[in-house]
Amino acid sequence: MAARDRSFGRPEKFCENIPEANWTISATVTLTDDRIAPYIERITGRDPRSGRIVTGGPCSIKDSSWLYGFSMSRQPHFAAQDPQKDLVVWLYGLFSDKPGDYVKKPIRECTGAELCAEWLYHLGVPEEEIDDFAHNSARAIPCNMPYISSYFMPRAAGDRPLVVPERSKNLAFIGNFAETEKDTVFTTEYSVRTAMEAVYTLTGVDRGVPEVFASSFDIRVLLSALYHLNDRKPLHEVEMPIVTRLIGKAVLSKVKGTYIEELLAEAKLI
Ligand SMILES: Cc1cc2nc3c(=O)[nH]c(=O)nc-3n(C[C@H](O)[C@H](O)[C@H](O)COP(=O)(O)OP(=O)(O)OC[C@H]3O[C@@H](n4cnc5c(N)ncnc54)[C@H](O)[C@@H]3O)c2cc1C
């Protein structure tokens, strides 16, 4: 369709020239006993069996050659999971062209047990115990996702078709590869919003698609993000160069008694 008419976009932009240093591999690891859980708790500060979210989102291992990361949600993760026994973790490596730090091969050549071993190494499990833990205390299922980062490929206007192409009466595109206003890819919301837009437009439903929250232009959201990104520290506890600190102090004295001071206090920054 795209070869016949440019209003259907340029799909080749999203499936060709995918960089070598790319995220393609992830794995689901089931921990089958409690030998690994203490190492997770040491890093996250949360007991994986507490019934609360454990990592609060992806946890990046910044020294890892694979730029490895893991995420552990509230357990049990799956309805059918045995809550007394199993714990489920998700692993992913963002650099798939470099050898690992414990497993000396690129992530895409690894077995599930090797993916698990590399993670255990970064968790701080003693090296002499890693292989035993990886084989006897965990079950890791790798998943190859060759197009997972396609959503993020550089693109220009027109590379993605509009949800409802101009003059289209009975055909629409839905999902993250269709063009809609303001939204950001890699979300379920994006797909849902495009589906609403498609149905409302083609069937003439007089209803607005829920707007994308304009968070990037809302100073209150940005200040709150600053607080959370700095491990929920007020400004005076955040490490910064002395000059920046002095400038900050001068600015704070100028905003005393103003609305800006109120905003900073609301975001817990002062
Ligand atoms: C590892 C990972 C983590 C993610 N994390 C998050 C997150 O935390 N939050 C978030 O909001 N989003 C996240 N996303 C993104 C989100 O999952 C996707 O954006 C969303 O699932 C896209 O939904 P969709 O219905 O548009 O497409 P899909 O879910 O891809 O569905 C398309 C369906 O079409 C089927 N299909 C393909 N070709 C054909 C064919 N020719 N005939 C019939 N059927 C076909 C496929 O099998 C598939 O079932 C994540 C994605 C991944 C991969």
Describe it for me?
The protein has eight helices and five strands. It has helices at residues 12-15, 37-44, 112-123, 127-136, 188-203, 219-229, 242-255, 259-266; strands at residues 25-31, 59-60, 68-71, 87-93, 138-144. It has 270 residues and is an alpha+beta fold. The termini are far apart. The model has no long low-confidence stretch (mean pLDDT 93). It folds into three domains: 25-144, D-Amino Acid Oxidase, Chain A, domain 2; 155-203, no CATH class; 215-266, no CATH class. It has a five-stranded antiparallel beta sheet. Bound molecules: flavin-adenine dinucleotide. Flavin-adenine dinucleotide (FAD) binds next to helix 5.
Q: How big is the Rg?
A: 24 Å
Helix fraction, binned, reads 25-40%
How many individual β-strands?
5
Unique bound compounds: flavin-adenine dinucleotide
Proper CATH architecture of the largest domain: 2-Layer Sandwich
Rounded average pLDDT: 93
Determine the CATH topology of the largest domain.
D-Amino Acid Oxidase, Chain A, domain 2
Instruction: Briefly note the structural class of the backbone.
Output: alpha+beta
N-to-C order of helices and strands: HEHEEEHHEHHHH
CATH C-level name of the largest domain: Alpha Beta
Q: Can you tag this structure with a few keywords?
A:
five-stranded antiparallel beta sheet; 270 residues; binds flavin-adenine dinucleotide; D-Amino Acid Oxidase, Chain A, domain 2; 3 domains; alpha+beta; 5 strands
Summarize the structure.
With 270 residues, the protein is of the alpha+beta class. It is 31% helix and 10% strand. The longest helix has 16 residues, at 188-203.
